[in-house]
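so ive been stuck on this for like two days lol. basically i have the seq below and the ligand is 2-acetamido-2-deoxy-beta-D-glucopyranose, smiles is in there too. i just want the complex predicted, nothing fancy, no docking runs or whatever. if the output looks off dont worry ill sanity check it later, just need somthing to start from for the group meeting slides
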Amino acid sequence: MMLAISRIATGAILLAISLTSSVFAVASHAPPATLTVKNNHPLIYYHGRWDSDVGTWWPGSGFKIKVKNLKSLTLNLGPKTPYPFNTLGVSIGDSEFFPINGSAGANTIPLPASLAKASRDQGTTVRINAAGWQTYRMQLDNITLNSDALLVPYTPSKTVFQIIGDSFSSGYLMPFGADQSWPFLVGEAFKAEHRITAQAGAALTDIVSYGNAHGLSYQFFKTEDTGYYYTTDHNYTTPWNFARDQPPPTHVVIHIGANDAAQGVSNDQFVQVYSDFLVRIRKLYPHQPIFMFTPWGWPSSDGNVYYYYQGLYQQILDARVATGDKNIFLVDTTGWITWDDVFPDSLHPTVAGQAKVANNFLAFLKDWGMVPPPA
Ligand SMILES: *[C@@H]1O[C@H](CO)[C@@H](O)[C@H](O)[C@H]1NC(C)=O
Ligand SMILES: *[C@@H]1O[C@H](CO)[C@@H](O)[C@H](O)[C@H]1NC(C)=O
Ligand SMILES: *[C@@H]1O[C@H](CO)[C@@H](O)[C@H](O)[C@H]1NC(C)=O
């Protein structure tokens, strides 16, 4: 009885306040309550490489969450996110990835209008990754959602690509960076997880190359990409704990050698370095098929394409097969990229060129026996 009376009394007070609403206008403008998801929340699925400050390195590293009743989303990034911003790719509920400029502090993510109609009850998958083509850093502090949103487990795909490469695979020169690279497009076609460990300008051989302090045969095993060297707030590199790659890769793809050739690494040296690298890769990935791309070469305005290390990839592969490793395949990319597919001043594939590589590799995989799920 007392309780009921006090409720009525409270109601009367609230009514009185609302009647004098002009005086108490601030109450109706109070920010809505939100749900904060901290970066250590177990239902954040991290992919790619993240350091102990919850900061990303390497193309397309990011996270995925699944949210029921999603109505608002703010990404709160930490101070190690590049200033003034880095390009992040965002996909909401299986939408195409779209870019946002992610800055330290609060970033409101626009939700597609279609989401309002879609059944929010099923849960909406949100995917966010560091896509900018020169640096792949963002530091996740927390995510704020509408207060009645509910985080549910994101189930990773059973297909997981691990791609190892250089500027041809890192999203170099793409307006939306890694999200327009062929590795990413192939992953999307399979609704797969993709981990892209590719570094523009880097050789496979552990030498200084185009500003990279190390080659991929060293840096692949590290958390940070070679950008650490120029980073004042994190000027060091640490071993990557491969046990964090969950689920482990199911398919490994390697496309490398352009910068070794450019730096004058001899044929013999290259064969040795690549073969040694494969031994280490095979230890990490004992059962996975490994796909070795041959170079697609440097197209020229005269219609020629200039290839490098011709025949060596086959030689490296044959030597591995001779050791009893039958689960390794050559992807002959000869003719995939022509003058029309590249930026004339850098000879790197354009957006359409990257898509062409993706389609060629998808066709290769289909012949090999791997067919994407229906779109
Ligand atoms: C969320 O992140 C922002 C931006 O870094 C920070 O200012 C805020 O204190 C964080 N909130 C919580 C609850 O951790
Ligand atoms: C990001 O910032 C750049 C440079 O200020 C601007 O041109 C671009 O439109 C911005 N992109 C988005 C998605 O806001
Ligand atoms: C990072 O450290 C290296 C030495 O390991 C040094 O040569 C380089 O100048 C440093 N870079 C920055 C940005 O501090």
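The radius of gyration is 25 Å. Confidence is low (pLDDT under 50) at residues 1-26.
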